[in-house]
């Protein structure tokens, strides 16, 4: 996911195929993410559901992503570090 710049409707299907590998971690560096939409937020929710009550730690989160996470009230499952 290092080269990923979007977490969107168009990128999530490819990521979903890699979910077994991706979901092993509980930290996601969003430094290169320039665009996120509802599909990207849903992907993060599904990821969080696999972590047995642990939060995903999101690093280097853009203000746009923070706004989306706040709007969808995902702060209970996503820990944001900007």
TrEMBL record:
InterPro entries linked to this entry: STAS_dom, STAS_dom_sf
Domain STAS residue range list: 1-82
PROSITE patterns hit by this protein: STAS
Protein name: Phospholipid transport system transporter-binding protein
Taxonomic source organism: Succinivibrio dextrinosolvens
Highest classification ranks of the organism: Bacteria, Pseudomonadati, Pseudomonadota, Gammaproteobacteria, Aeromonadales
